[in-house]
Amino acid sequence: SSLLSQALIALFVFFPYLILRPLFPTTRLSYTNNSDKSAKYRSEERKGFYMTGTQMIKYFYIWGKHVMGFGHLYLFFLGEIG
């Protein structure tokens, strides 16, 4: 493979996540956890339950993004598929 084709593959592997993603708004779970409004709707004894659920969602999201989003792009980049 030529250097140009390798550069194009690398560009299309990382382009969607590094260039396009910042153009879309994000919602952070920590915003609701740290706001004064959240204390009004969440009791202190349920805070641990909420924090555990929030952490599980974060880990699942990261796993899903890398396995389902990046995974096939990594395999293509390494020459395992395509």
What's the pLDDT, averaged over the residues?
Answer: 77
SSE topology string = HHHH
Radius of gyration: 19 Å
Summarize the biggest pleated sheet.
none
List the uncertain runs. Answer: none
Structural class: mainly alpha
Number of strands: 0
Please tally the helical runs, counting DSSP H or I stretches of 4 or more residues.
4
Our estimate of the beta-strand percent is under 5%
Helix content: over 70%
Distance between the termini: 14 Å
Q: Which overall shape is indicated by the principal axes computed on the Cα atoms?
A: elongated
Molecular structure report:
The protein has helices at residues 3-20, 29-34, 36-41, 47-78. With 82 residues, it is mainly alpha-helical. It starts with a helix and ends with a helix. The model has no long low-confidence stretch (mean pLDDT 77).
Keywords:
single chain; mainly alpha; 76% helix; 0% strand; 82 residues; 4 helices
